[in-house]
Amino acid sequence: MSITASRRTTSVIAALAAVPLFVALAGCATASSDAGAGGGDSENETVKIGVVGKGDAQWAPFVEAAADEGITVELVDFGSYEQPNPALTEGEIDLNQFQHIVYLAEYNSASGSDLTPIGSTAIYPLGLYSKKYDDVDSIPEGETVAVPDDASNQARALLVLQSAGLIELKSGGTIFSDLADVDTDKSKVKVTALEAALIPTSLPDVAAAIINNDFVEDSGLTFDDAIAQDDPEDPNALPYVNIFASRAEDADNETYLKLVEIFQTNEDVQAGLIESSGNTAVPLQTPVEDLVASLKKVQEDTEAKK
């Protein structure tokens, strides 16, 4: 899920809030690969990786780099985000790489699965834009800032505003934060929620606005115009880091971990990642234990909200 700031990520996060994700999911790929649990010692292994967007620029050099290490990668391209996780759970593929931690937590919670992150890829920052002010510090106290009205994007938008010092959230900020969580007495600006597609045209009427990445370029802006965005170092941004996921029993598979290393360190793969994201991706090598801890917390929070 090249998770919200790319076009894919925005669509996925919106989908989390809009519909039940995990009913009547279609079966997908064919039989599992030769690199099953405990694999990683033999050469010429074949590993099936589920993706959404096989044509993205990072994948061709990734497959080539893996082959140089004696690993045959078969990319299984899925047409929707609902498919790769069930396919992984059922053993039809060995890994997938399309989602952030929030999405995986929602899937595990709804399905009872135990898929787990084994490595990070990137975060796609969500940005704050303004037609009136060149930086966050210039926004006067009491002005109004707009955020998307759908739940998942709104929570992330509020975390961006808090990180930028414009608001304070009573809970400290979670993936479930909404306007009621804004501490108005301690916040610099007022916050209003608008339909995401209408925010770009409303930008002249507010001090600033969080604009979903799907609408940034369509509204005559560039990603470089953002005056604030997710800070990849902010712990609140961690649930939006994109990941490689495996079945829990395969979390220590040496071949799979080698593939993560190739993705994270190969220059051509990283250049392709940046290219396919429209220069918005921030590549990361987040410690796996941090990813796992984040997944656990998000799942616990998700189940507590049910």
Outline the fold blueprint.
Layout: H1 7-18, E1 45-51, H2 59-68, E2 71-77, H3 84-89, E3 95-100, H4 101-111, E4 116-120, E5 122-123, E6 127-129, E7 144-148, H5 151-163, E8 190-194, H6 199-202, E9 208-211, H7 213-216, E10 228-229, E11 242-246, H8 254-265, H9 267-276, E12 282-283, H10 288-304
Helix pairs in contact: 2-9, 4-10
Give short descriptive properties of this protein.
alpha/beta; five-stranded mixed sheet; 306 residues; 10 helices; 32% helix; 12 strands; single chain; 17% strand
Gist?
The chain is of the alpha/beta class and 306 residues long.
Outline type:
globular
For the secondary structure, the number of strands is 12
SS content category: alpha/beta
Stretches where pLDDT is under 50 for at least 5 consecutive residues are 1-42
Strand order of the largest sheet: 2-1-3-11-4
Order of helices and strands: HEHEHEHEEEEHEHEHEEHHEH
Helix count equals 10
β-sheet strand percentage: 15-25%
Task: Output mean pLDDT.
Answer: 86
Instruction: Outline the biggest β-sheet.
Output: 5 strands, mixed
